[in-house]
Design a protein that fits this description.
single chain, rod-shaped, binds aspartic acid
Length: about 850
């Protein structure tokens, strides 16, 4: 049995009587706030009051807020005096302040005295003091969120505007990632003055539309306002703001600008808990004796700054940790002197408890990693819309960016945004897309113009609800790049230099243009073709009856005729059945002399027959085959002759672009500075390369400054000039100018689209509108109206139908050759008759002379 002395007994009894929970009734906590930080001070007080009312946290003790005010320009010496003053009062922790320089000093004192220091400010340091807990998320995590959203949006070129080196630290991840890409990022610092316009103008001129703004919350309004003044608050601009307090700024002026202003926030003012807390907060404020202008929360219902919410959360965190610590150890709190050696023995334990606490606060989940940095917190992604700021998604460190707004909602926002806006539409005069109206009265504005493109944009504007104003492009060009300077001209330049929102007309969608501007889907399809004068009628040929068969066939026929005649002659001699007396061949005779054979063959060929016919099988075979041959040949000839005599022969020196390339007599050209010229210039196909070299070397120049000039030149050229033009425009021209026609097919296939600035927010809407018009058949109606009906459409249609429907009667010119042959034949017959007569006379004379000599 163990023997316990009476003294030890007493000690044990005394120990058992002391309660484990021995926190003092009043627990003082110190707050260091800057003179102007009314909100923070109020939040601090309110949090203390709230905890004192809450019976679940520190039920037997009351918190007491000890507040010291510091001014921002105060030196560390004075600040440390205030901290020491607080410590002398026996505070168990110190909250604040928010300024960097003073805070560092406070931290070192707290570290020495082992008093927990709770901060709610932005601090980039990777290592933190032992006694410090900072509720503000670490900048590296925030910069990760910024990087994630930029990545999500796919921003390539953007400008970072930063205020100080500190603000640049918020963007570290973004800068690091950007260094790995090929796209350059511009980084510009805000000047110290309040006039940011020169800087903003430079950014505007650089054409960058995406901006990351890293400056203090107080400066955001000014920067945005000045951006608006210089025209950087348009639908095309996007701002990503690094401050977590964008919701505290009055952005009403920018609501309808259409600019995408996005930021993250830590506190959701629509959260029930936040709303309730802040509403109670305001009551406390009203009860307090603050002057009206100091009543921070009356200003904007539930909108509070992150740091203010963090103060509230920090006090709760402290109370919860102290409560937990209190259950495990005995805590006493003593006043401490900065000059003494004493420290607070529970300081580190309390800090450790704070780091393992997990609780929900105004800034959502409050949780720390083992290094004491906030982890697993959620950031709201907020965006300015016509209805003010609203949440469009969230971000957390594990899942990254998550946009909760559907694509449809996004599109609807854009449509709403576009309503009643006036877009500048650039165009150039080109029939029938954009033409000046014929009118005796002086027309102004959009009224001056009409045409397919004008009707098209009007229909689109009616669908999407925007207004537009037309501006003709000053240089009258479509848009091509100067390879030496890299500069664009024409309508493309107007878009690039932000003087126009849309470019419309017969503007071809090309790869080169698509690199710098955006196009809608094509509203019309076409290809390059040749515009040339119509083929002229060929004068009828005197010997056109020879045309149905080619010269070769005529020669072969003549040869066949002779061959058959000779063969018939030989076979008739050879076969005994062709002889009149087959028993006595020496006395017999056959009719198939060579002359007769030839007569027989020609008689068959001419479908006339002959008074003697073959009798033997072999000769009959020859005759039969010859007849068959003549039957087919004559039928073919007759059929073809009909076609040759009735169809009008057209004479065109070229039938296709290849024919153009093969010759040099006919000059040809294209529109200067358009996609047609680019097609030939950039083609890898040898024919087109040859054509381009020919065009370039031609003197005088074969290039036209407009389609109208090209058409005029083709008409006046009377066959000496051909114009390579887009098929739709050719179609329009040949409906009205009956002297011209399209030669051959299309050399390529492409489309016209409405161009807009790159990454334009209107693209999807415009695409849908074009598609809608196409599906409803409106595009077809417009095409018919401007091609076939208005401005003399269809004038050449009668022309073509007349010529094709009436059959041509044959004139002497068509059949005259037959008469010539007939006369020629008659003539030859007469000559032969004379020869025969002479021949016979000579023969008779000779025979008579022989007889006379025999008589003598
Ligand atoms: N439509 C063309 C363009 O956009 C003009 C042309 O080259 O025919 O450039």
């Amino acid at each position: 049995m163990v023997n316990i002395s009476p003294f030890v007994h007493l000690v044990l009894i005394a120990f058992c009587l002391v309660p484990v929970n021995s926190l003092p009734d009043i627990i003082r906590i110190g707050g260091l706030f800057h003179n102007g930080d009314i909100d923070q001070e109020l939040a601090f007080r309110y949090a203390v009051e709230k905890i004192n009312l809450d019976k679940t946290i520190l039920p037997r003790s009351k918190l007491s807020a000890q507040i010291e005010r510091v001014s921002s320009d105060e030196d560390s010496f004075h600040a440390s005096k205030r901290v020491c003053h607080l410590l002398r009062q026996g505070v168990s922790s110190i909250f604040g302040p928010s300024s960097n320089s003073i805070s560092r000093h406070v931290q070192s004192i707290c570290d020495t005295m082992e008093i927990p220091h709770l901060e709610m400010r932005w601090d980039y340091r990777i290592r933190r003091e032992n006694c410090l807990v900072n509720l503000y998320p670490h900048p590296s995590v925030l910069s990760r969120a910024l990087y994630d959203i930029v990545e999500f949006w796919g921003w390539k070129h953007f400008t970072i505007i930063y205020e100080s080196n500190d603000s640049l630290l918020r963007l570290q991840e973004l800068l690091k990632a950007q260094r790995r890409t090929e796209y350059p990022t511009t980084i510009r610092q805000l000047p110290d003055t309040n006039d940011y316009r020169p800087l903003l103008k430079q950014i505007k001129n650089s054409g960058v539309a995406h901006i990351v703004l890293a400056c203090s919350t107080e400066k955001i309004y000014n920067v945005l306002k000045q951006s608006q003044q210089i025209g950087m608050m348009s639908d095309y601009h996007s701002y990503l703001i690094t401050s977590l307090d964008l919701q505290t700024i009055d952005l009403d002026e920018f609501k309808y600008s259409g600019t995408n202003i996005t930021a993250f926030r830590l506190v959701d003012p629509d959260n029930y808990n936040v709303r309730k807390t802040v509403a109670e907060w305001s009551q406390l404020e009203l009860r307090s004796d603050k002057k009206p202008n100091e009543r921070a929360f009356q200003r904007n219902d539930t909108v509070i700054k992150s740091e203010t919410a963090l103060i509230y959360d920090a006090v709760h965190l402290f109370a919860k940790a102290l409560h937990d610590l209190d259950t495990s150890q005995q805590i006493d709190i003593q006043p401490l002197s900065c000059d003494g050696q004493d420290t607070w023995p529970h300081g580190y334990s309390l800090i450790n408890y704070m780091k393992i606490v997990e609780m929900k606060g105004l800034t959502n989940l409050i949780k720390f990693d083992n290094q004491g940095f906030r982890t697993d917190f959620l950031l709201d992604i907020i965006e300015l819309s016509a209805n003010g700021i609203r949440k469009v998604g969230d971000w957390n460190s594990t899942q990254g960016v998550n946009f909760t707004r559907s694509f449809k909602e996004q599109q609807q926002d854009m449509v709403d945004n576009l309503k009643n806006k006036t877009l500048v539409v650039t165009a150039l005069l080109s029939d029938p897309y954009v033409m000046r109206k014929d009118s005796a009265a002086k027309l102004t504005g959009n009224n001056q113009f009409e045409g397919y493109a004008i009707d098209l944009i009007r229909e689109i504007s009616m669908i999407l609800g925007f207004n537009f104003t037309f501006r003709l492009v000053p240089d009258g060009r479509y848009g091509s790049i100067n390879k030496l300077t890299g500069e664009w001209d024409g309508m493309v330049r107007e878009l690039l230099e932000q003087r126009a929102d849309l470019a419309i007309g017969d503007l071809t969608i090309t790869y080169e243009r698509e690199q710098v501007v955006d196009f809608t889907m094509p509203f019309m399809n076409l290809g390059i073709s040749v515009l040339y004068r119509k083929p002229v009628k060929q004068p009828p040929n005197l010997f056109s009856f020879l045309s149905p068969l080619s010269l070769d066939v005529w020669i072969y026929m003549a040869t066949a005729y002779l061959g058959v005649s000779v063969l018939l002659f030989i076979l008739a001699r050879f076969t005994p059945y062709e002889w009149s007396n087959s028993q006595h061949p020496e006395k017999s005779d056959t009719q198939f002399t060579l002359m007769n054979c030839m007569w027989f063959a020609i008689g068959s060929l001419m479908q006339q027959g002959c008074d003697f016919l073959p009798k033997a099988v072999s000769t009959r075979m020859v005759a039969g085959m010859w007849w068959f041959f003549t039957l087919i040949m004559i039928s073919s000839y007759t059929a073809n002759l009909a076609a040759f005599l009735t169809v009008e022969r057209m004479d065109s020196p070229i039938e296709s672009a290849e024919d153009l390339a093969k010759q040099t007599k006919i000059k040809y050209g294209v529109l200067n500075g358009g996609s047609t010229a680019s097609f030939f210039r950039n083609s890898n196909f040898s024919t087109y390369q040859r054509m381009w070299s020919f065009m370039e070397s031609s003197k005088p120049s074969v290039f036209a400054q407009s389609n109208t000039e090209g058409v005029e030149r083709t008409t006046k050229g009377k066959g000496s000039y051909a114009f390579l033009m887009e098929s739709t425009s050719i179609e329009y021209v040949i409906e009205r100018n009956c002297e011209l026609t399209q030669i051959g097919g299309m050399l390529d296939s492409k489309g016209y689209g409405i161009a807009m600035r790159q990454n334009s927010p209107y693209r999807t809407m415009m695409n849908s509108a074009v598609l809608k018009l196409q599906e409803e058949g409106r595009l077809h109606i417009l095409k018919t109206r401007w091609w076939k009906e208005k401005r003399g459409g269809g004038s050449c249609r009668d022309d073509t139908s007349k010529s094709s429907s009436t059959a041509n009667e044959l004139g002497l010119a068509n059949v005259g050759g037959v008469f010539v042959v007939l006369m020629g034949g008659m003539g030859v017959a007469c000559v032969i008759a004379v020869c025969e007569f002479v021949w016979k006379s000579r023969k008779v004379a000779t025979e008579e002379r022989v007889i006379q000599m025999q008589c003598y």
